[in-house]
Amino acid sequence: WTPATSAQTPGRVVSVFCTKGGTGKSVVAINLAVALAKRTIQPVVLVDADLQFGDVALMLQLQPTHTIAEAVQAGDRLDGAMLENLLLRHPPSGLLVLAAPTEPSSADQIGRADIARILDILRERCAYVVVDTSANFAEVTLAAIESSDDILVMAGLDVMSLKSARIGLQTMRVLGIPFSRVKFVLNRANTRVGLTEADAERALQLKVDAALPSDILVAESVNRGVPVVTSAPRSKFAKSIDGLADMLMNPASAPAQSRQTV
């Protein structure tokens, strides 16, 4: 945990985002962060920016003894050393976690500039900063998206989820977010519900960058508080997460895809 020198490349910020709850956003964010932590000796931090309903600490069996609210309360005194002391450590993986507030009312005290500053500090000290956002375009979510090098837009194979994702992409276009940063992650991609991966691509006018399968192991892992990439590393879901992590770590090796803004 050391500040980046001029010779070091600042870490990458990856936001996991969807505009509809129930798409498995937090599960993907957690498993992706753990997968990245296993791939580098540099620090990897997972920021729970779902300030009112964030469950990252609970899903990793961590006690939120410190939260993002304390970082914001520090104001101008906040620096790398102070922020390091507020991070929770997930012993099995080495992942660091900045937990959401334990009191939902604390969310009202956290603004766009606060999140941007926290992400800037973390970026200078970590290889990857994964942000689990809220399922809306709150100011905090906007700050995370604007600070991100990669934005994982999630959707499932259902009409409502795809409609919500499309609206999210349209909002990003209005905000001037470069679509080169966007990765389309289709969750539960093997669910037989009358829609296909090709239908999802047509709906969003984006190629699917990562298709994650539905797997009973995912629900079991959440209840056990152990990420799938740890509990069942050979499962199809874990391997899909590994593929997503590899793509983020080696963007130059990702297949070129034609992207069309909505």
Features:
262 residues; alpha/beta; eight-stranded mixed beta sheet; 11 helices; 8 strands; 40% helix; 15% strand; globular
What does this protein structure show overall?
The longest helix has 17 residues, at 159-175. The chain is globular, with a radius of gyration of 17 Å. Helix 1 (25-39) crosses helix 11 (236-249) and helix 5 runs parallel beside helix 6 (139-147). The chain contains eleven helices and eight strands. With 262 residues, it is an alpha/beta fold. The protein has helices spanning 25-39, 56-59, 68-73, 80-86, 112-123, 139-147, 159-175, 197-204, 216-224, 228-231, 236-249, and strands at 12-17, 44-48, 88-90, 95-98, 128-132, 150-155, 182-187, 210-212. An eight-stranded mixed sheet has the order 3-4-2-5-1-6-7-8, sandwiched between helices. The termini are far apart.
